[in-house]
C-alpha cells in the first residue's frame, strides 16, 4: 500500500487526538468543571506525579535507542525541562511545589504512598513501550504534546476559577508547559514525518500515538473508579 502524503499522515495523527486524547475523559471533565473535592484533587496530584517523574526516564531510554546525534542533541532538552538545571527548577520540582499547595508532603509523592495500582501499571507500560520499540515509535507516542497546550491552558483557567484554595503561584507547572509542548511537538512531528516513510511505518506511528492516549486515559480510569465511581459521588 502506498504511504500517505505528509498532509494525510499529519491528519491521521491529529485525528487520534481529536478522538482519543484524555481531555475528553469524565474525570478530566469533572476536574475542569470544579466538581472535585480537595481529597480528589490531592489524589490526582499524587498519582499524576508518577507519570511526571517517569517522563525523563522514558526520554533517557529513547535517547539510548536513537542512533542520530542531531536528534539526541535536541531531545535531551526534554530531560532537563523535567529534571531541572541550575537556572530552572524543572517540571518535577514545580509539581512537588503544587503538591505542597494541596497539603501533600514531598515524601507522599516521592514514596508513591498514594499511588494507585492502575496508574502504576499504565505509566510502567509507557516506559516499557519506549524501552522496547524503535526510537521513532517512541517519538510518535510523544505526540500527545500536539494536544497539550490547549488542555494545559484550559486546566490552568479551571484551577484558578474553581480551586481558589490552591496558591496561584503553585500552578507554575501549568503556566510553563504550553510553550514547551509546542516546541516539543513541532520537533517530534517533524521527526515522525521524516523517518516514517512507508505505509507500515506510518501505521505504527499512529498506533503508538493511540497507545499513548490510551495510557493517559487508563491513569484517569483508575482515579475515576477509586474516588468517584467506587464512592458514588463526584463532590
What are the defining features of this structure?
single chain; 235 residues; mainly alpha; 0% strand
Instruction: Give average pLDDT, whole number.
Output: 96
From N to C, what is the helix and strand string? HHHHHHHHHHH
Percent range of helical residues: over 70%
Shape: globular
Question: Compute the gyration radius: what is it?
Answer: 18 Å
Going by CATH, the homologous superfamily would be: Heme oxygenase-like
The profile of the biggest β sheet is: none
Tell me the number of strands. 0
Please characterize this protein's 3D structure:
The protein is mainly alpha-helical. The chain has one domain (6-229): Heme oxygenase-like (Heme Oxygenase, Chain A, Up-down Bundle). The protein has 11 helices and no strands. It has helices at residues 6-20, 26-32, 38-65, 69-83, 90-101, 106-110, 117-132, 135-141, 148-162, 172-195, 199-229. It is globular, with a radius of gyration of 18 Å. The model has no long low-confidence stretch (mean pLDDT 96).
Short note summarizing the structure:
This protein has helices spanning 6-20, 26-32, 38-65, 69-83, 90-101, 106-110, 117-132, 135-141, 148-162, 172-195, 199-229. By secondary structure, the protein is mainly alpha-helical.
Strand and helix layout:
Elements: H1 6-20, H2 26-32, H3 38-65, H4 69-83, H5 90-101, H6 106-110, H7 117-132, H8 135-141, H9 148-162, H10 172-195, H11 199-229
Amino acid at each position: 500500500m502506498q504511504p500517505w502524503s505528509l498532509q494525510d499522515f499529519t491528519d491521521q495523527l491529529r485525528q487520534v487526538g481529536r478522538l482519543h486524547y484524555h481531555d475528553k475523559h469524565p474525570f478530566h471533565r469533572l476536574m475542569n468543571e470544579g466538581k472535585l473535592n480537595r481529597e480528589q484533587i490531592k489524589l490526582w496530584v499524587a498519582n499524576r506525579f508518577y507519570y511526571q517523574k517517569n517522563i525523563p526516564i522514558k526520554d533517557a531510554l529513547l535517547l539510548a535507542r536513537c542512533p542520530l546525534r542531531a536528534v539526541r542533541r535536541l531531545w535531551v532538552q526534554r530531560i532537563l525541562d523535567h529534571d531541572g538545571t541550575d537556572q530552572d527548577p524543572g517540571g518535577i520540582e514545580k509539581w512537588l511545589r503544587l503538591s505542597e499547595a494541596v497539603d501533600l508532603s514531598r515524601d507522599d509523592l516521592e514514596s508513591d504512598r498514594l499511588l494507585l495500582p492502575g496508574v502504576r501499571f499504565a505509566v510502567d507500560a509507557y516506559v516499557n513501550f519506549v524501552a522496547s520499540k524503535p526510537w521513532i515509535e517512541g517519538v510518535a507516542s510523544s505526540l500527545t504534546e500536539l494536544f497539550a497546550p490547549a488542555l494545559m491552558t484550559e486546566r490552568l483557567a479551571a484551577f484558578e476559577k474553581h480551586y481558589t484554595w490552591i496558591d496561584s503561584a503553585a500552578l507554575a507547572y501549568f503556566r510553563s508547559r504550553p510553550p514547551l509542548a509546542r516546541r516539543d511537538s513541532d520537533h517530534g512531528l517533524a521527526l515522525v514525518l521524516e523517518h516514517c516513510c512507508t505505509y507500515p511505518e506510518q501505521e505504527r506511528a499512529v498506533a503508538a500515538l493511540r497507545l499513548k492516549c490510551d495510557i493517559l486515559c487508563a491513569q484517569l480510569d483508575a482515579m475515576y473508579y477509586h474516588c468517584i465511581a467506587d464512592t458514588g459521588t463526584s463532590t
